[in-house]
């Protein structure tokens, strides 16, 4: 699911008549999520970058870098401020990535499965919200979110293919990480 992110055609036209509260919340939280994902993969690469899992993690990280770049552009285009929690997500993301990688490849992949499942579910909720608002008005934003959701699903599946479920205490680890993701989403939408 590579293939670059769609570009906004007309920023000025895109700002007319949009629901600012909804768009601000979506772009702010998605930017924070992609920022956090980048930090998670950075932490995983710090521990496992030279292992056999390194190329797989790097491939997923490269897509996350593209996602973050696109949300950086959208923040400027839609004039959305970032969450004030970015410094916290910087540290927390790296610690989560490195900590899960210290459990080995399976631990890193369990983290990937948990995070990417949470994020793709979150993106699905945003797609529903924008479709209820006005699918034509939010066509470009919907296209971006759908593509990134598909990339996150692919990362989830890669994690499963690389033995995520074999990680120590997989179900506990997954549940804890997903609770953290829900809290991060809730806070980043609002602060």
Write a structural description.
The protein is mainly α and 191 residues long. It has a single domain, classed as Ferritin. Helix content is 77%, strand content 0%. Helix 3 packs antiparallel against helix 6 and helix 5 packs across helix 7. The longest helix is centred in the N-terminal third of the chain and has 29 residues. The chain is elongated and about 50 Å long. The protein starts with 10 loop residues before the first helix and ends with a helix. About 3% of the residues have low confidence.
Which helices and strands occur, and which strands form pairs?
Blueprint: H1 11-15, H2 20-48, H3 54-77, H4 86-101, H5 105-133, H6 139-161, H7 170-190
Radius of gyration: 16 Å
Architecture in CATH? Up-down Bundle
**Largest pleated sheet:** none
pLDDT < 50 stretches: 8-13
CATH class annotation = Mainly Alpha
Outline: elongated
Judged by helices, strands and strand pairing, the structural class is mainly alpha
Helix content: over 70%
Number of helices: 7
CATH topology (level 3) name: Ferritin
Q: What's the number of domains?
A: 1
Overall pLDDT confidence: 93
GO molecular function: 3-demethoxyubiquinol 3-hydroxylase activity; metal ion binding
GO biological process, one term: ubiquinone biosynthetic process
Protein name: COQ7 protein
Keywords: Iron, Membrane, Metal-binding, Monooxygenase, Oxidoreductase, Ubiquinone biosynthesis
């Amino acid at each position: 699911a590579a293939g670059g992110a769609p570009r906004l055609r007309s920023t000025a036209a895109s700002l007319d008549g949009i629901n600012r509260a909804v768009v601000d919340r979506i772009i702010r939280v998605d930017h924070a999520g992609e920022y956090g994902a980048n930090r998670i993969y950075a932490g995983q690469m710090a521990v496992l970058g030279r292992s056999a899992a390194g190329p797989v993690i790097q491939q997923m990280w490269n897509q996350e870098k593209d996602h973050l770049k696109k949300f950086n552009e959208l923040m400027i285009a839609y004039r959305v401020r970032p969450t004030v929690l970015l410094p916290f997500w910087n540290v927390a993301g790296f610690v989560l990535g490195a900590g899960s990688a210290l459990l080995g490849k399976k631990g890193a992949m369990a983290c990937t499965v948990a995070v990417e499942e949470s994020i793709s579910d979150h993106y699905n909720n945003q797609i529903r919200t924008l479709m209820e608002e006005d699918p034509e008005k939010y066509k470009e934003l919907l296209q971006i979110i759908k593509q990134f959701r598909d990339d996150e699903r692919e990362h989830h599946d890669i994690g499963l293919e690389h033995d995520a479920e074999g990680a120590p205490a997989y179900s506990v680890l997954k549940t804890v990480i997903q609770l953290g993701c829900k809290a991060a989403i809730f806070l980043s939408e609002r602060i």
